[in-house]
Amino acid sequence: MTTTTDDAADPEALRGAIVAANGNDEADTITLEAGQTYALTVGGAGENAAATGDLDITSDITIDGNGATIDASGIDDRALHVAAGGSLTLVNVTVTGGDAADAPSGDGGGSGGAVLNGGTLTVEDSTLTGNSALRAGGAVEASAGSTTTITGTDLTDNSAGDAPGNGGAFHLTGAGTVAISGGTVSGNTATAEGGGVWNSGAGTMTLTDVEVTGNTASGAEATQGGGGLFQEAGEGTLTVNGGSVTGNVADGAAGSGGGILNDQGTLVVDGTTISGNTSVRAGGGIEANVGSTTLTGVDLSDNSTGSSPGNGGGLHITGAGDASISGSTVTGNEAALEGGGLWNGSGTMTVTDSEVSGNTASGAAADDGGGGLFNNGGTLVVEGSTVSDNVADGDAGSGGGILTLGGSLEVTGSLVQDNSAVRAGGGIEATEGSTTTIADSRLQSNETGAAPGNGGAFHLTGSGTVDVTGTLVASNVAANEGGGLWNSAAGTMTVSNSTISGNLASGDDADSGGGGLYNDGGTLTVSDSTIETNAADGASGSGGGLLNVGGTLEVTGTDIVENVSVRAGGGVEAAGESSSTSLSDVLLSQNSTGGNPGNGGGLHLTGNGDVTVDLTLVEENDATNEGGGLWNSAAGTMTVTRTTLVGNTTDGIGGALYNDGGTLTVDTSTVSGNAAAGGGAGVAVAEGTDAGATILVHVTLAANDSGALGDLTIGNSVLTMNEDGNADGTVASLGGNVVGTDVSTGESSDVQTDDAMLGELGDNGGPLPTHLPADDSPVVDAGLASVESLVDTDQRGAERPVGDAPDAGAVEVAAEMDDDDDVTPPGNDAGGNPAGPATPVPGQPSYTG
Q: Are 314 and 344 in contact (CB under 8 A)?
């Protein structure tokens, strides 16, 4: 070009050259003079021949700009129009000043401030800036059927007006193909949707290594916004590869998707940074209204959403949309209400091999929160991921790491760590109607505050089902109840092959605590697990390992060791109306309770509940006051069968067992090697309790510091060889006993001797240590068949009786133990090593006695 004038008749002018090129069938290149500005000044309307108004392209034309500028501010029209069948390539040119307010010239009224593309448009290494359109596409509008390729180009400071005002920089209408690579989309504004770029419901659009930054969309509706990018409802697909989406805003009254809004379309993002975006309603980084959203290798960080309502600081899914997040980081995002990092609606969200950390949700209600993730009734799957350092800091905020409001939550092979909540569920909160599965994972060092502060690692509100397997729950803290796990009155919780270790509950009330687990009236089942070194350290904290308040607790194949409480139940506390607690095949060892008052080192029953203990080793537990091993309440019912109580201690009375006036039955069990400073090292019964309330059948109570204190009834039992006396109180007899010479039962069938010829406590077959009498011991055939037992074998599982009458005590001397009779020692056979990523812990101690 030799002139910068705007003259359709001059082939040396830009307009004239385009008119000439449109008139032939060849591909033409128009080269502009470097650094020059080509001002369009010939206004006009209603024609598509480039004679007036915008520059119409109807053939194959390349404009090589050499850094020149095309300025359309003088024509009140867009700068360029590519007609259907036309092809335009812009290279190294700046297009500015285009205004498609009324678009007086040609088709596409009010669209495409710089370029309206109805054919094929290629833009390379150029700048489209300062253009505007009334309807859509402040810089570029691509019509249905068009193809657009933009490379290394900056789309900056363009705007789309209010009719409706979509696509501040770029807008695609209908079916079309768009590829944008390199360059920037920045500082653009749209009155409604897509402050930067808007893709249609029938379009295919790909952005590669593009910086989308500082754009604004101001639509007031919940489905409007998309400060950076917008995908319309339909079959369209928006793909973002690499690059960044940063600092964009959806500032309408209910504006959503500060960075990106996917409205019922398909969004695919790979290797992109989405950071520092904001919205008013939801989805500070991304809002997806239904549709499909896939994020791979994405950095979703430091986004925020406001208070209307303010959900999903990083990503928000409305309705039944599906989302997949893999290999991504979701960090530092904030939500005023729920889901600081991610918020899932009624669809399915899968988070795989990702990090969700340092996010915050600040909703004040009990069902607000979910600092890291929030699931609103849908299905949330977290696999191989880390959820850490997230916070639910509202007045009653719950679920520091994850909150599932109903729906289904699956956490597999993941780490949930260092999260915190004010109300409940420092790590995870699940509410009414939810189903939660946690497998092969670690829940550790999570914390919940003092409002009320329940469930340091996990809390269930209302009815729900929880399954925890192969998981380490460690070093979590609750201000009140359930340092590790907390189950509701209507809940069903199952824990298997897991380790609950080093958790702390600090509630001060007598029914507060449960350092490891707390059951608030629901059903809690624990199997093949380890519950160790947990504590209830409040002023009257109870249940260092487990606290069951009015619910059903079943524990099998589990180690409950080295737990501590202040008031009662160092290992286990059962309390509340009509609680039911069952321990079977359990190691209850080295638990302790303190001095307020300090009852039931191993297990304590408060109130009118029912406790059964079977095939259990109650070993080396300690109580400051009463019941080093087991403590039964005045209204309680406790049944102990096939169990060995050894090495338990108390500074008061009842080293192994204490009955405070309720019903205590001990059957086919061994009580040995226990100590009580105040007497009754084997068993102590509260003063004034009827002898018929405490019944020992086929029990060997021997080799303790002292025997029995208080009134009790024995049958087919051994009560002798205790160091400081065998009985202090009335001993009623059912017959068939072998007792010390200091014991007077008044029953002729009882044998008095100070040497029952018992072997040392040890492995005599069966799962637990026992005393095996000598073949000529006085216990042999000393029992009576008329004495009813709850067990039809001896303690080892061997045949009983052998001969005409059963032996007295726990062991049938003449019974032979076959290999098939031997069973594994009680407790967690796996040694407390959960599967998956959980950190192994030391195995169970030896039980040789």
A: no
